[in-house]
Amino acid sequence: MTEKEKMLAGQQYSAIDQQLLEELMVVKDIIHKYNALAPSDSASKLAILKDLISEMIVLSALT
Fold first, then answer.
1. Structural domains counted in the chain
2. Could you tell me the pLDDT band of residue 22, with boundaries at 50, 70 and 90?
3. Residue 48: how many CB atoms within 10 A of its CB?
4. Residue 55 lies in a domain
5. Domain range spanning residue 42?
6. Is 56 among the domain residues?
7. Global pTM?
8. Helix (H), strand (E) at residue 3
9. What whole-number distance in Å separates Cα of residue 57 and Cα of residue 61?
10. Contact residues for 34 (Cβ-Cβ < 8 A; gap 6+)
11. Contacts of 14 (CB under 8 A, 6+ apart)
12. Spatial distance between the Cα atoms of 22 and 31, rounded to a whole number of angstroms
């Protein structure tokens, strides 16, 4: 069982697992781009949210 599987199952897991850290950095980068946008830039915000959701779907499919 991977650390991510343990985490998703509510079991004790290692938060310094390489896979989890890589996924965390991907999401943090996307969130940083979103937070740096102007409040009026709705189109870019929507595009980033779509990317974030797509990334989450891809990452969940890999496990």
1. 1
2. very high
3. 19
4. yes
5. 15-61
6. yes
7. 0.72
8. helix 3-8
9. 6
10. 45, 48, 49, 52
11. 3, 20
12. 14
- Return the amino acid letter for 39: P
Is 8 within the bounds of a domain? no
Q: In this structure, what token pair is assigned to residue 9?
A: 């199952």
Structure tokens at 20: 């989890």
Instruction: Classify residue 45: in a domain, yes or no.
Output: yes
Each residue's pLDDT tens digit, 25-61: 988 998 899 999 999 999 999 999 998 888 778 877 7
Cα–Cα nearest to 48, from 33, 59, 38, 28:
33
DSSP assignment of 10-62, as one string?
Answer: T----TT-HHHHHHHHHHHHHHHHHHTS-TT-HHHHHHHHHHHHHHHHHHHHT
Residues 6+ apart with CB under 8 A from 33: 48
Place of tokens 């004790």: 12
